[in-house]
Amino acid sequence: MAGLARLAREGVSRPPAEALAEVSELPVAPGPLPEAGPGTVAVTWAGHASWVVRIGGLTVLTDPVWSRRILGTPSRVTPVGVPWKDLPPVDAVVISHNHYDHLDGPTLRRLPRDTHLFVPAGLGAWCRRRRFTRVTELDWWEAVELPARDGGTVRFDFVPAHHWSKRTLTDTCRSLWGGWVLTGPAGRRVYFAGDTGYGHWFAEIGARLPGIDLALLPIGAYDPSDMLRDVHTDPEEAVQACLDVGARHMAPMHWATFLLSAEPPLEPLTRVRAAWRRTGRPRGQLWDLPVGGSRVLPEE
To answer: Is 269 helix (H, G, I), strand (E, B) or coil?
Structure first.
């Protein structure tokens, strides 16, 4: 209620006009997808919470949003980091929750209807109505596996987050929300947090699924904090979440794409870099990628 009162009083829901000049400075550097054989783990940031994850020889999309504009959201301020035509065949899609900036119908319609969709409990019917034939709903701590290219499996664990769900006037919190941990045949792990506030669940994820190599964590859409902190981590909380889950590397997301809240466009990047420096961890373990940027997970 305090956040709604401030919103009504001050109209604070977008960056101030003078801060919009920073949009031209947002990092964008599209490049070719890295070569990724069955033993490679690589990620490419397409923008917002959309990643192209290559693991076990599979191509997995997270919360794919390739639309320029989506319902109830300002237009993208940066281009999609990976042209759709440049994507390899998509083996699976993981969805964190049903908000329009994470579950984008026009983007999903571009996929073959036999693409594996892994979704939170309560979202299966939505997908099946769109004629997808391989839909798996999961509750927190449930998992499913797909065969990897050269033997073994890629495991998809659905893990807790602190958020909410809504697409219509009558379905508030009728479907679940959460993050995903992808584990390749050699045991290397990528954690995609989706949308979430900060809390004890990060330490629990790290305890149940130890050895996370890379955490994809949200750092934007946090101002006004009294309205948003329960559902979105700020940059400092995201860095602490990386420590809590025990991840070796962190890649920020959920910024530099849609201006959803009042912080200046470049502030999340400045703050996450400062928070990382304060941890004393090597700078190279923070993968603050530009939109369209890629990294390959080193073998350790």
So the answer is: helix
